[in-house]
Amino acid sequence: MPEMTLPQFLLKNAREHPTASALREKEKGIWQEWSWADYLGHVRAFALGLVSLGFGRDDKLAILSDNRPQVYAAMVAAQVVGGVPVPVYQDAIAREIQHVVEHADATIVFAEDQEQVDKILELKGSLPKITKVIYEDPKGLRHYTDPLLMSLAQLEESGRKLDAERPGLFEELVRATKSHDMALICYTSGTTGAPKGAMISHGNFVSAIQGILEIEKYQRTDQMLAYLPPAWIGDTFWSLAASLIVGCTVNCPERPETVLENLREIGPHFMVAPPRIWENLVSTVQVKMADASWVKRRLYRWLMPAGEEAARRTMEKQPLSLRLRVLRALGEFFVFAPLRDHLGFRRTRYAYTGGAPLGPEIFLFFRSLGINLKQVYGQCEITGVSCVQRDGDVKLGTVGKPFPNTEVRLTEAGEVLTRSPCVFLGYYKNAEATAATVRDGWLYSGDAALFDQDGHLIVIDRAKDVTALADGTKFAPQYIENKLKFSPYIREAVAVGQDRPYVGAMVNIDMENVGKWAERRKIAYTTYTDLAQKPQVYDLIAEEVERVNRDLPEGTRISKYVLLHKELDPDDEEVTRTRKVRRGFVATKYADIINALYAEAAAVGVTSVITYQDGRQATVRTELAIRRIAGPREPVGV
Q1: pTM of the entire structure?
Q2: What is the pLDDT of residues 94-111, one digit of tens each?
Q3: Which residue, 91, 136, 214, 536, is the most exposed by fewest CB within 10 angstroms?
Q4: At what angle do helices 511-520 and 535-550 cross, to 10 degrees?
Q5: What is the rounded distance in angstroms from the CA atom of residue 242 to the CA atom of residue 97?
Q6: CA–CA separation, 254 and 503 (whole Å)
């Protein structure tokens, strides 16, 4: 098995289970299905079509698309001919696309539709290596005459023609693929600089899936939902590699906006999501419960604490009292099972959170509903996952234990080092960064962590982000931020305080949830900025900050906060496409606001440049209130 490649697994599945369901996509309200034989047929036509265009070994195929069956077929097709797929975030702006496509030396781009084609055509003057742009959806492209363009239907037709002329060529190409061949270039999120291209081999993927299969039980009849960006390693790990190796069915949503609806329809057997998705689900439940009938609200508020206490005691391997068992049974009937069904988790055996730490309150929320949510840990440099919590051994605040084929140790400074067959080949065209990241076979993660007495890994934060106040008190900003984001009214938060007298926080309100809250109270507002600066909204967020402070050590409690005038946005480079804060950039951009948190001022002025759809710009000046939180420790110097 470790010697097999992903195209070879496709060939194996198509031969052994030709009629079984491999890929499904909802289109115009109807689920369209590809069997394994269909999957193979599309990959065969796509791969040989690429050959007819002169695409071959070590060439790069950039992919710019939402989750579609054709996306995964394109990835495998590129691998068949010895090429390398390079997925790009589909919502990326022009300069981000240009960096990845140009840096990866891509010669062909697979674009989903007119929107993505337009992005490439706009950039074609700065992408001289691109020889063809293959598009899947022809809608709106009928009158496009650029010679770069070619439809997927045309490509597959040329592939079928070559297959007829040279029978056996496809199988010959599949046999020629090797486990040490590069299977993917996955670009990092770029929290501290330009994204780097992590080169991942077929052997890396197979070893990673083999590692998790030694812990979890997946079946060929399992259903999964592919909704994460194909450019994120979390999607290629599951929707590409795991589906090919296990033989389970991948379901693609109709549109990104219908993910939750499609999730309820499918009822996946396993699911992985970054913290942002779990946070959004909690916010959705909390807001809907606030609008529910009196009886439902009463049942929810009565039984949820019992569910959380039962989940906590179960994780701590402590017995449940008779009272708790009765309350949990009532909760299962009236609250937990209905919520699982409503969210789409009625059949879910395994649910995972990864990519960043998940706040303990949110983790406990899902465990209390009876959802087997577990924390996984890893980086794209180790093919996605290296540690996972085991069934019956889930501990709050940890990421579990390493895979059976993975070694993990800590440096004296507490940095996580990992060694396994899943460690990537290196960074594309960046030998210096590769040498700094992989030394003597060990992957240096940059994460600060410790082991508990049972051998569970506890990841504290990025090592460079763990900081100290002026008096030497250590604090992890991400831990505080995660606790703040448990609130349905807080979308994003940035905790600051390095070399300062106390911890401060910049907060993004959740426009939708806070907007509904304001409407119920007949609080009029116009824009995001207007809503965020309402005194009543500051009072609302003050309650959430005080809730967080109650669970924090006295020295690291938030003393002042400000509600930002705009959401932190990937397009403005303030957060990555995976919603990780670019701390250095934010610290520089919002330096005036951060300084105001440590001054006597009750407000700080900010100037924003607004760009309208027609290209016009307007400059708007706003005053942001600085709010102080009363507490047992008075801020030093204030």
Answers
A1: 0.88
A2: 888 999 999 999 999 999
A3: 214
A4: 120
A5: 27
A6: 43
